Amino acid sequence: MDYFFCPQEHISQSTVTIDGDEFAHLTHVMRKKAGDVIRVVDGIGTAYDVELKEITKKTAVGAIINTYPNHNEPEISLTIAVGMLKNPSKFDFLVEKTTELGVREIIPLQTERTISPHAKTDRWQKLALAAMKQSGRSYLPIVREAKSLDEFLKSTNSFDLKIIAQEIKGKTSVNRLTSLPGKSIVVLIGPEGGFSDDEVNRCVDSGYQLLYLGERRLRTETAAIVTASMILTSP
Q: Of 20, 40, 69, which residue sits at a domain end?
């Protein structure tokens, strides 16, 4: 079934009204017409089976047939904060794939070794929207404005578990994620070259556990995907 996004304010108890870009996609790209049944997601965790009833020049109105709370969403709420990359297409890829895996929030970071300071938040949010629909999710991940590492660390006290995916000499690392405590987790992933030792120490002092991802050196986007997969598919 084809997925379409509709914000909660356009959904009533019995009907859905689709407009804007999603309306254009519905009518001009997918060629949907009255009588067709589609799946609509509200971006905050609920999916609906909707029968299209009326299509005008700017809106499509449909009747809600079935409702699916927490549709295709993991139990864990995972936030990833990632050092921005020199090649913007690699961060595009990261946003798409971590959205498919079930990440709830993505935060670009400015770090000591960040090469590109330019965040393309609007573009990444659109990519997350497309990936949400493609993967059949019902929650739209939020792509935040870029933050410095220190600014970000001040905002993470409420998470049940805090992880930084990097090893450092003299510090104990975990190499497996089992029996994850709580349901809200935040993971830090460094840019090209990783975090500096000083940055890692500041993260550890802020309560972050080090996560060892193995002997092979992973690219930032690969480390983000691997770590998200480890957490979101953990029994």
A: 69
The string of pLDDT tens digits covering residues 94-146 is 999 999 999 999 999 999 988 766 789 999 999 999 999 999 999 999 999 99
Contacts of 179 (CB under 8 A, 6+ apart): none
Q: Which domain holds residue 29?
A: 3-69
Amino acid letter for position 41 = V
pLDDT of residue 118: 75
Strands, DSSP E only, in 56-116?
60-69, 77-83, 105-110
Contacts of 9 (CB under 8 A, 6+ apart): none
* Element holding 143 (H helix, E strand): strand 142-143
- Dihedral angle, C-alpha 114, 119, 123, 128, nearest 10 °: 60
Final residue of a domain: which of 30, 51, 69?
Answer: 69
pTM (predicted TM-score):
0.91
CA gap 45, 75 in Å, rounded: 11
> Does residue 84 sit in the same domain as residue 65?
no
Residues 105 and 146 in one domain: yes
The CATH number of residue 180's host domain is 3.40.1280.10
Question: Helices 88-101 and 220-232: crossing angle, nearest 10°?
Answer: 10
Domains contained in the chain, number? 2
Phi, psi of 58 (to 5 degrees): -125, -15
